[in-house]
């Protein structure tokens, strides 16, 4: 069939809300965009393990330690399914990791901010995972089958994470004055970066229109951001904490909260590599990978030797 | 066996799990492959779970109102009763696997016996934990074989790790008066018997991994009596600092 006919069929198929599977024909640009999107998502999961993993050895109770271990392990699991989903598009995990390590691939900028008190673990679960859920729930219905299916499981786990984060915030906000202060401090530092997680404004989001047509993006950045703010403000009220935005106000007419101007200068700088932890995060990942090279090589060498021995036995 | 002795015996079990779990938690995000990151964190989680059940029970037995967190976060190094092996630093992946392998083989034998403990609570905790420990033992043994039989580099590295840690193994299976009292009370098995099985099983895996079996030379001991290496103090400083800085807080 001619390329043009294939394209027409593909577009109709997607418009019909049918799922594209790995062996189906797809336009190159769709494949490339998906690889970029899924691998960025996978990288975000594994880089995201670092700011939280940071606190496993210092969690303030054994129960909190166990919950945090389970949570960070979930994130690693998400990374694993997402790399697998990307592999269905014809790339290898190692290639994708190389792109992460040499700076060609991006990951969610939020993980370039530091976790400096225990309430940050609460704020990450509550705000960062909360924002991630907003972004990801629609993807359970996206047009690419393996990605959509991975997202179903990811979202179930993320909603647990969000609740455990809120629980940490609640315990601290209702705790001693020092705990409440830590909770407020964490909210002050994580609020704006969380809003930035939805990406640039719709006017400045160049790939959005095509991705929406392909159904690998179902709502616009600004729509999702507004939805997140509307959901989160009442939760902050339950906590008795103040959102660090003097312009935040309910707008009766719009039926939404109005909010202040995001610092886009900061947003683009953190993306460019100038965030507080960009270098540290990538260096940590690269070091883990390099230090593990001999282990991965040994595993491959052993598997080859074992296979050779098996063949010898079979031949004898 | 007095309640006090029993409490102390339980601390040995609980602290082994807690300290090894804490060590493995340091690996999170730094593993040689994503699958191993998940495995090490998972084992850490199992061990922290075991520590929580055992320390909770120890605190109840003691009857002084200490729960799992009071015992984990408000004791200093000299009150910890874990063996020296589990507090040794992570080193490289091979060092961690060697430490885990030597411990897992002991824990597997011990928990199998503890399922028959005269203390119902200990027996129940052992029955729940044995499934986890069986998996841990398989995981670490498979890695010993992979690394031993892998490349020249991995073979040399894992041999060195085993050699370096060997002097901490005697403490696992050499009974002191408290171990003997626990055995006499039917709470715990005869460690001298486990020693033979431990050697047999560990040697078997090392042979399969084409590794040399170290001589049972001079053995370090003291952890079970609260005399630790320099490493434990640093671990506890990190682990305990938040609850100690805010002793009235609930988290």
Give a nutshell description of this structure.
The complex is a heterodimer of chains A (316) and B (251). Chain A has twelve helices and two strands; from the N terminus they run H-H-H-H-H-H-H-H-H-E-E-H-H-H. Chain A has 316 residues and is mainly α.
Could you explain the architecture of this structure?
The complex is a heterodimer of chains A (316) and B (251). Chain A contains 12 helices and 2 strands. Chain A is mainly α and 316 residues long. In chain A, strands 1-2 form a two-stranded antiparallel sheet. In chain A, strand 1 (249-251) and strand 2 form a beta hairpin. In chain A, helix 2 (28-53) packs antiparallel against helix 3 (62-87). Chain B is an all-alpha fold. Chain B has one domain: Ferritin, core subunit, four-helix bundle (Ferritin), CATH 1.20.1260. Chain B has helices at residues 3-25, 34-62, 68-73, 84-87, 93-114, 120-148, 152-165, 170-173, 177-184, 191-208, 231-245. The interface between A and B is large, with 50 and 50 residues.
Q: What's the arrangement of secondary structure elements?
A:
The complex is a heterodimer of chains A (316) and B (251).
Chain A: H1 3-15, H2 28-53, H3 62-87, H4 93-101, H5 119-136, H6 145-173, H7 177-196, H8 208-213, H9 221-239, E1 249-251, E2 256-258, H10 264-274, H11 278-291, H12 293-315
Antiparallel strand pairs in A: 1-2
Helix pairs in contact in A: 2-3, 3-6, 5-6, 5-7, 5-9, 6-7
Chain B: H1 3-25, H2 34-62, H3 68-73, H4 84-87, H5 93-114, H6 120-148, H7 152-165, H8 170-173, H9 177-184, H10 191-208, H11 231-245
Helix pairs in contact in B: 1-2, 1-9, 2-6, 5-6, 5-7, 5-10
């Amino acid at each position: 069939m001619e390329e043009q006919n294939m394209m027409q069929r593909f577009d109709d198929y997607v418009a019909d809300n049918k799922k594209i599977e790995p062996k189906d024909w797809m336009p190159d640009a769709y494949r490339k965009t998906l690889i970029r999107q899924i691998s960025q998502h996978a990288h975000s999961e594994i880089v995201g393990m670092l700011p939280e993993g940071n606190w496993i050895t210092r969690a303030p109770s054994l129960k909190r330690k166990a919950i945090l271990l389970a949570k960070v392990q979930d994130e690693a699991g998400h990374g694993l399914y997402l790399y697998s989903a990307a592999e269905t598009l014809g790339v290898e995990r190692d290639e994708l990791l190389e792109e992460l390590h040499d700076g060609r691939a991006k990951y969610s900028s939020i993980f370039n901010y530091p976790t400096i008190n225990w309430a940050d673990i609460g704020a990450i679960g509550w705000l960062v995972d909360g924002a991630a859920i907003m972004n990801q729930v629609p993807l359970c219905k996206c047009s690419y089958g393996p990605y959509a299916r991975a997202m179903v499981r990811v979202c179930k786990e993320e909603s647990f994470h969000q609740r455990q984060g809120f629980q940490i915030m609640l315990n601290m906000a209702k705790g001693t004055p020092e705990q409440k202060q830590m909770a407020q401090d964490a909210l002050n530092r994580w609020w704006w970066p969380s809003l930035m997680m939805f990406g640039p404004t719709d006017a400045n989001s160049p790939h959005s229109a095509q991705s929406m047509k392909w159904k690998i993006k179902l709502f616009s950045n600004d729509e999702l951001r507004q939805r997140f703010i509307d959901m989160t403000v009442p939760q902050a009220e339950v906590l008795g904490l103040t959102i660090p935005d003097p312009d935040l106000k309910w707008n009766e007419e719009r039926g939404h909260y109005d909010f202040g101007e995001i610092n886009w200068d900061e947003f683009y700088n953190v993306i460019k590599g100038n965030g507080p932890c960009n270098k540290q995060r990538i260096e940590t990942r690269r070091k883990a990978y390099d230090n593990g090279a001999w282990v991965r090589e040994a595993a491959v060498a052993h598997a080859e030797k074992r296979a050779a021995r098996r063949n010898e036995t079979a031949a004898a | 066996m007095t309640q006090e002795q029993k409490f102390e015996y339980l601390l040995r079990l609980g602290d082994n799990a807690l300290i090894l779990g804490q060590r493995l938690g340091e690996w999170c995000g730094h593993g040689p492959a994503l699958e191993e990151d998940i495995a090490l964190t998972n084992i850490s989680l199992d061990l922290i779970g075991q520590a929580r059940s055992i320390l909770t029970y120890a605190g109840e037995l003691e009857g002084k109102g200490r729960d799992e967190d009071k015992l984990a976060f408000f004791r200093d190094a000299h009150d910890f009763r874990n063996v020296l092996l589990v507090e040794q630093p992570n080193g490289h992946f091979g060092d961690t696997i060697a430490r885990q392998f030597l411990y897992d083989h002991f824990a597997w034998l011990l928990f199998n016996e503890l399922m028959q403990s005269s203390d119902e609570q200990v027996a129940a905790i052992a029955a729940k934990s044995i499934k986890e420990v069986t998996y841990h033992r398989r995981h670490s043994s498979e890695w010993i074989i992979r690394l031993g039989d892998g490349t020249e580099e991995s073979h040399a590295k894992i041999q060195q790790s085993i050699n370096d840690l060997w002097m901490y193994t005697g403490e696992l299976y050499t009974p002191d008066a408290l171990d003997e009292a626990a055995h006499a009370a039917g709470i715990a098995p005869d460690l001298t018997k486990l020693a033979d099985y431990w050697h047999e099983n560990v040697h078997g895996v090392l042979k399969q991994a084409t590794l040399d079996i170290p001589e049972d030379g001079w053995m370090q001991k003291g952890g079970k009596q609260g005399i630790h290496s320099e490493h434990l103090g640093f671990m506890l400083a990190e682990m305990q600092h938040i609850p100690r800085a805010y002793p009235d807080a609930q988290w």
